[in-house]
Protein: Target of rapamycin complex subunit lst8
Organism: Acropora cervicornis
Amino acid sequence: MTETDGSSEAVILATAGYDHAIKFWQAHSGICHRTVQHPDSQVNAMQITPDRQLLAAAGYQHIRMYDINSSNPNPVVNYDGVSKNVTAVGFHEDGKWMYTGGEDCSARIWDLRSRNLQCQRVFQVNAPVNCVCLHPNQGELIVGDQSGAIHMWDLKTDHNEQLVTSSDNMARLWNLDHGEVVREYSGHQKAVVSLAFRDAHAV
C-alpha cells in the first residue's frame, strides 16, 4: 500500500480482476499485505484518488470506493445506477469529481463533493465505451467506444466532437486543438485496440 524509503515518494500498488478480490502490494518486495473482497462483480478498472486516500473500483453496474489507509474491508462509498459494466474510471486533478465510462454507451460525471452519490452529467454515444481519458486541461473528456469512434466532450460548453468514425487497422496522432490528424501509423493487420505513449519532453 504505502512504503517510503526516504529517497522516494510512497508507492501504492493495487491489483484486481475476475477473482472478485483487490490486493494491495508492497511494490518493492512483491509482498501482498492486504486483500479486500469485491463480491458484487469482477473489477474492470481502478483508479486512486489524487489525495491518495481512496481507491475506486469499477465493476458491473457500480463503482466502489475503498479506504486505502485503513484495514476496513468494506467500501466507504458506493456509486450505483449504471445499467451495465463500468469499463473506465478516473478523477479530476483536484478530486472534485470522478468520471466513468461503460458498456451502457455513456460517459458520466460524478460530483465527489456531493453526498447524494448520484451521477451529475451523462454523455451518450452510439456504442459501448471502452475508455475515457481526461485532457490535461481538466476540461475535456476523450471517450473511445467499440465502434472505433473517439469523442471529445467539452465539459464547460457541453459541446462534443467526433474525431474517428471507424476502426481501420491504423493508429493516428491527433492535434486536439484543431481536431486534425497529424500522422497515421499503418501496418497492423487487424484493429488497433491498445496504445502506450510517453513524451520525454513533457513537463
User: Anything to note?
Assistant: Confidence is low (pLDDT under 50) at residues 1-9. The radius of gyration is 18 Å. The CA atoms of residues 108 and 122 lie 5 Å apart. The first strand starts at residue 13 and ends at 16.
